Amino acid sequence: MNFHVGAPAVKIAVCIKRTPDSESRFRIAASGAAIDEAGLKFDMDDFAGYAVEAALQLNEKAGGGETVVYALGPDSVQESLRKAMSMGADRAVQLKTDTVPADGIAVAKALAAELKSGGFDLILFGKHAFDSSAGVVGTAVAELLGLPGVTAASQLSVAGGKGAARRELEGAAELVEFPLPAIVTIDEGVARPRYPSLKGIMAAKKKPLESKPAQLGPVRVTVQRAELPPERPAGRILGEGAAAVPELVRLLQTEAKVL
Amino acid sequence: MANVLVFAETRGGDVRKVALEAVTAARALADATGGGEVHAILAGPAGVASRAQQLGQYGADLVLVAESPALAQFARESLAATVADRTKAGAYRAVVLGFSAQGRDLGPRVAARLDAPIASDVTEISAAGDRMTVKHPGYANKVMLTLSITGSPVVLSVRPSAFTAKESPRNARVETLQLSPAGGATVTVTQVVEGAKGRPDLGEASIIVSGGRGLKAAENFKLIEDLADAFGNAAVGATRAVTDDGWRPHSDQIGQTGRQVSPQLYVAVGISGAIQHLAGMRTSKTIVAINKDKEAPIFKVADYGIVGDVLEVVPALTAAVKDARKGH
């Protein structure tokens, strides 16, 4: 990631989500419409972590500024907000709901209503969250607030009231510029999140965490069913070394029919 | 009876494969809801209008052509406004686009502008009355979610390769569509950096050859390139470990945090099969694994496995594939 030293301090909001550890073995809940959360480890989503780190680096290089983290959801999201503050964010806001709906526009409306008057130069999101894997909220907030929005930036820099970013396209990349204030959703590659230091963890306990009700829009998208994908049938080891190649080619021709 | 609007993505003046898949998905949805029409927005620089009948070939009844020099680059705000304005004017049941780099950006914009519900990256669509039901792989492909959506219109982005583009020819009517202004501050494209030429994109390739740390050194990726060449029009992918080490560009990464692919054939070379990687390729139709460790998890998902030194096996496979293709 690339910053222009001496740039004026910026006020940055980062919207994070709390999601289960992606390496987990998932089971389906009795309702059939959700995963079984028992025994799962939850943490700040991976892409949200990149966004928090990007914000912190921006403010550290520029000096001054403020990083405020937001999360929508039940009280369990406070743990992720504290983590972001232990990494270095200055304060946190919980937009309280019982559950996080599958309707990205409903969530975007709640965040847009809250962020509208925050006076932020930059609002960052992860490019999507692991659980919903949808990538709607950040870019929708940009539209709702009428701000320039960059979806899935793999590089980001800010200087002189302007931002610049890189986006990976299929087989190409796009370099873009935009005026601040703006919204950027962060892809992997921008910044590897730091581990909170002990000092950071202690400091985070004293940082302000505000909780207020979320103004969700109407929820029109719901999860009706959750299923584990069918296991792939057990494969065959055809043999060892180059000697197995003819058999592989034969199967690719006659069975898989891809040659 | 309900009409469906498609945003048919173009690049370099050509209609992208994912656009034809979106038209196919829209055609099926219109037919299933009483035989409405499919209208497709075809937007690009001058000359793109010549592609209109290609959309008719796949089932569009009306092609709305917007040509503008501004569309030489991805004019995201203006395109989103154009799609949203047309949707309002036409009373559509759904707006369908591809879940591509462009579609990921446009979908949420259009939904926000219309205050419409959106489902991303869908692999199946069905509609009954005022309820639409879609399938969407969540949790990085580990949990299949069935989403129920109320309200109309609905914005749907379709996963590349999930819907097979199918011809449904008709003589499409063609109309000119005026681009809507962006309104407000915008993102400006300053440069497009083209990737390696001559290979299909990972999301569009029917064959992918992918390499991991088992290749031992960056220069051995040449073996992967050679095997991809032997197959003909194959794409080249890599694991996160390999892109983190800088052997390959970040954009080649297949996995949970990289690209998610479903080709007809996926050849995993020197890839152990970490969960992170499997999340990106386990939906491939046929998987081949070549790895020296017979206990590697990749063999649990591979249809065909060869245990051995990749530096020995891959050149042999490359030669054999070349021979096999010559025989055709």
In short:
The complex is a heterodimer of chains A (259) and B (328). With 259 residues, chain A is an alpha/beta fold.
Summarize the structure in words:
The complex is a heterodimer of chains A (259) and B (328). By secondary structure, chain A is an alpha/beta fold. Chain A has helices spanning 46-62, 77-87, 104-115, 137-145, 198-206, 245-254; strands at residues 11-16, 18-20, 42-44, 66-73, 91-96, 122-126, 149-159, 162-169, 172-179, 182-186, 209-213, 221-227, 236-240. Chain A has six helices and 13 strands. Mean pLDDT of chain A is 94; it is low at 1-6. Chain B has nine helices and 18 strands. Chain B has helices at 17-32, 52-57, 76-90, 101-114, 221-231, 240-244, 275-281, 298-301, 310-326, and strands at 4-8, 10-11, 14-15, 38-44, 62-67, 94-98, 118-122, 124-128, 131-138, 143-150, 154-158, 173-176, 188-194, 207-211, 235-238, 265-269, 286-291, 304-307. In chain B, the strands form four sheets. A seven-stranded parallel beta sheet of chain B has the order 7-11-6-1-4-5-12, sandwiched between helices. β9 (172-179) of chain A pairs antiparallel with β13 of chain B, so a sheet runs across the interface.
Present the secondary structure layout:
The complex is a heterodimer of chains A (259) and B (328).
Chain A: E1 11-16, E2 18-20, E3 42-44, H1 46-62, E4 66-73, H2 77-87, E5 91-96, H3 104-115, E6 122-126, H4 137-145, E7 149-159, E8 162-169, E9 172-179, E10 182-186, H5 198-206, E11 209-213, E12 221-227, E13 236-240, H6 245-254
Parallel strand pairs in A: 1-4, 1-6, 4-5, 5-11, 6-10, 7-10
Antiparallel strand pairs in A: 2-3, 7-8, 8-9
Helix pairs in contact in A: 2-5, 3-4
Chain B: E1 4-8, E2 10-11, E3 14-15, H1 17-32, E4 38-44, H2 52-57, E5 62-67, H3 76-90, E6 94-98, H4 101-114, E7 118-122, E8 124-128, E9 131-138, E10 143-150, E11 154-158, E12 173-176, E13 188-194, E14 207-211, H5 221-231, E15 235-238, H6 240-244, E16 265-269, H7 275-281, E17 286-291, H8 298-301, E18 304-307, H9 310-326
Parallel strand pairs in B: 1-4, 1-6, 4-5, 5-12, 6-11, 7-11, 14-15, 14-16, 16-17, 17-18
Antiparallel strand pairs in B: 2-3, 8-9, 9-10
